[in-house]
Sequence to fold (1312 residues):
Amino acid sequence: MSTPLIEAVGVRKQFPGVLALDGVNCRVNRGEVLAIVGENGAGKSTLMKVLAGVYQPDGGEVRLNGEPVKFPTPQAAMRAGVSLIHQELNLAENLSVLDNLFLGREPTVGGPLRLLDRRGTIAAGRRLLERVGLPPDDLSRTVGELAPGQKQLVEIARALGLDAKLLIMDEPTSSLTQKETDRLYAVIDDLKAGGVSVMYISHRLAEIKRCCDRAVVLRDGKNAGELTKAEITHDNLVRLMVGRDLKSFFPRTRPPVPADTPPLLELSGLTYRNGPPHTVSLAVRPGEVLGMAGLVGAGRTELSEAVFGLRPVTGGSITLEGKPLRIRRPGDAVRAGVLLVPEDRRAHGLVLEQSVGFNLSLPNLGRLSTGLLIRPRDEAKLHAEGIASLRVKTPSARQAVGLLSGGNQQKVVFGKWLARGPKVLILDEPTRGVDVGAKTEIYALIDDLAARGVAVWMITSDMEELLGVSDRVVVMHEGRLAGELARSQLNEEAVMRLATGAS
Amino acid sequence: MNEKVKFGAALGGGFAVAAGVWFATHTYHDPKDHLPAPWSEATLTAWFIAAAVAVGVLAYSFELTRRNLQRLAGVTLLLGGLLAALGYSGHQKVQENEPLIDTLTSRIERLQREGNTAEATDLREQVVKLQQNPAFGRTNVFEKLNRHGEYGILCIGAGLLILAGGIDLSVGSLVGLAAVLFGVLVEKGVHPFLALPAVLAVGGTVGLIHGLMVTQVRVQAFLVTLCGMFVYRGLARTISPGSPGMVRAQEVWPDFSAPLMQLRQWLTGIGADERLGFPGVFVLMLVLAAVAAVFLHRSAFGRYWYAIGYNEQAARYAGVTVWRHKVAVFAVCSLLAALAGVIRFLGAGSVTPSSEGQSFELYAITAAVLGGVSLKGGEGTAVGMVLGALVLPVVNTLMNFAKIPSEWEPWLIGLILLFGTVADELIRRSRGGR
Amino acid sequence: MKRNIWRAAAAVLAAALVAVIPACGGSGGGGSGRAGKVRVAIVTNVADPFWDICQAGAVKGAADFDLDVTFKQPAEMVVKTQMDIVDDLTKVGIKGLAVSVINPKEQTPKLKAIAQDLPLNNFLTMDNDAPESGRLCYVGVDNYEAGKEVGRMVKATLPNGGTLALFIGSTDSDNGVKRVAGVLSELAGKDVRSEVAAGKYEAKYGGFTLHRSQPITDGGDKNKAAANAGDTLEQLKGTPNLVFVGLYAYNPAKILEAARTKGMAGKVKIIGFDEDTVTLDGIDKGEIVGSVSQDPYNYGYETVKWLRHTIDGKDKKQLPQDPTPFSLVTKDGGAPVKRTVSVNGVQKEIEVKQRKASEYSKLVQDAYAAAKAAK
Fold:
């Protein structure tokens, strides 16, 4: 066997209270695309950060071309040809794309004067953008005005500019549209052909199968197994990741909802401020999961925000249980029982620094208070019930919610609404950044809620999830409803056709 | 723990603390520290009970979590050091008296041998007085507690606001404006009992305007209140180019003499004979802190303020009407600043429009930060605010006790506060994980 | 993690030490060096170079009369700030106290209580008096008479009258009213004290037109004082027989600086008060006609002297009852001149010292150095 490009041998990394990596081995050969798979908290990100010089290993070693190396800083790793593309994008939002591409290594002319070589920079920038499939005009745009998918591509272009020998990507496609994802696959194929290696973290199993040569599975900070390209199957991956077989990925216990059931929530001719010129009408019946598909930027999140009172409604009407509902602010929606699990749970769904209990209580305090004072015993009961019924993995209700894994965080977001008894639950990307184990639990929870008569409106970009969970699907395209598909008509092509606007 | 038991324990603890302070300060009884005539035992008892209950409520409301304790560790250690230094500087004063004490003692012995007990007793009293540490004399403690109260009132307002993600730079100017306005109103013939609510209403309105500017017009709080800082200072100078004062007001309106004195006694504890009978401002601050503690730690309001301070969007997505809460907190901050202004007028007897309360906003913010309120919002406790507000008065007293030249004071104070905040930060970081 | 806690605790202790060290250094040093010395305190109204000169006098007095003098200059001219310092100092066993009172009327009741509590009621006022406070004596000039001296200087400079611009920090303070009234009374030839106190001014006083028919104030803000002087110079450019009078220490200095930048130094007559470094330099160069000095060094020295007098149990009747005489600062100095002034309501003839600017300047510099060394 030839010497691998980079190799981790028995790497250990200890954090206060957690052993994140416990003797992990892993190697990447030249021109190989390696997938790192595992549940959240399995140590994938830590491993990548150790390889990229963000963290120093507490034990074991990293070998580059067979030689032990130490990267004291990410810059050192970068000089050695190892580039990390972060999960949270690391771009200066206020600068232009061009400035970001060359940030910290601006080509200069004029010797000590360090004048910026504008012309050379622009030419080099254009070549980089071309490689990731972005139009050259984007060079002068400010990063802040780009869509998340475009930002991701800029980030990748920046790493390409560094002549990386190994590109480490931490969930690079989590915010990309299908088109952008395809472009990324093409870029990865190009890199591979050029002898560049790629390490790739993803939750999307189909994606791993599409572009990786090999998959290393981590569980609880240890190697759980390794799969060759041929062995990469959904079942194999899940078995190694979870350490057990999953009975059913998409549990479905609820009875089908009769078509003549009167809708619980109905939007008719709805428009909202700064929204598209089209009106939107749709209905969700009790006990039903309405899936909503569409490309990034199709206006799905915006529509849900308008219904939840975050964007002022300018026309049309919202009806709840047959009665008109006037929503001016989120408080109105919450009181009416129309609840939103937002897309960005870290920014909108949770107060990360505060405890699990604090977050569970937040929308329920009115019910828990007598006069001015909160009843501590009732509150403790609420916390205990919330944690137990949702199986939130936390040492106590006092644990800061930001320290939990993505899946458990999402359960807390669900938990704060469940305690209120929702009528309509709007889920915006309910399993983004959630590991496989927690995903099934959330799907079971959605099923259970629907079975209890809650109307669930689920916005998702995960095709598997859309097809597996929904009873009915509506597809949005450029701000309007492009079509509706009954469960019997559901398949990936039908959804994509509607989502891309093909007639 | 059972809530009722906890409440009882906290209340009992409050009484114990208050009683301890009371007796400790009484042991050093100075013949000249007589109880001023206007003080009845009933008034004193009422003050005492109010203080004890307030301490109890504060203790009861404080959530005994590691994180909260950690936030208090820095300021507690700092205060401990400062108080020790203060006590030590007082102790040195006693040492300076030692030669005199020796002389007096030998004289007492001689007098006793001669059988002159009356004179000996007189002298012994004098010796006892000389042996007392002046830092812990009753009047001194009461005066310092009152100063603590003044900072504390401001700090509670600023602390609540910062905690909810706001900032108010106009506090100092507003203290000046309120103090001047109260004086001008009384001089113009408004009854003191009416002038007080009027000034408080003005303060509250100013805060409302701040809050509305921030939430509705979406101007940054820093900017709104920075402009306010200039506006209120200017207003204070405009409505009274001279210095309004209590004596002047009483000359124009002799009828107001009694109510003014009464108001001063209730709010500050200074009797008609100009002597401090009880730390009234301190008790008032304790009561306000207790109310703040209940709101902050025991009610939905506090939860919302913490949530808003950390993550306004998350609060909004949870159905909290964020702007109303922000406006309310701005109003509370300005209202307390106005109250502090009135107390300042009553306590000092006269105020200077051009510089009264200058840079108090910074003192209040510093005190809040020392007390564990995070400038980023979302962190802080009522007990912390009370402790944080104690640092500056103690430092100031230390400056005067330890014979430190005036010009050293600013940088010494700056360094001590810096050390306090840095230590606080280190402690927090060492336990915070990251 | 344990180790971190201790490190943090060590940091806090270090912080506390910072507080303790000066406490030890300050009074510990005092304990050994000045053991047995009686402690007295002087509290001014605000921090100012004027008081630095005074402090030098007090330091000299402390050495001559064997006292431990604490000299405090409050950061701002606010009654509460000043009284907080006084409150603190009275707790550490001082045997005498002198205060430059900010607001005599309003501070009198509280000062009375403090005077009663001090040993031998050893309480003096200086610079600004509170006659009803129970103070044993007042060390300071009569600002009204000092103002009249400025008026005499104006008349001597421009015997045929002219245009007068009057600059002062504030006309609300007692000394401000008295100085302004003194100048204007002298020019008008009649007593205008009550009018000035009520804020009523006329357009003309004797042969002089009062620019803007009122004094120009800056509220103690030196930048504003400079702007005021500059603006007024612009407005009055070309007016014949121009005289600018500055009545707070920094006013004449700011007028001169403005005149220098506009090339009007020497052309406009400037008459001042006190002994700002720039003022003395201007007098020496002939750009400023002269200044009336309160002699702050003497304030400091005299105050300590009289505090000691009472501590020694000497006769209180020997304490000074008359205001301290002011002096004149001119380019060439000269023999003392005789002036008839009203002292406690009685007309008296007094001698007014004339100081040579260059010599006085040296004295002031020495005083600054002495004050600095004392710190």
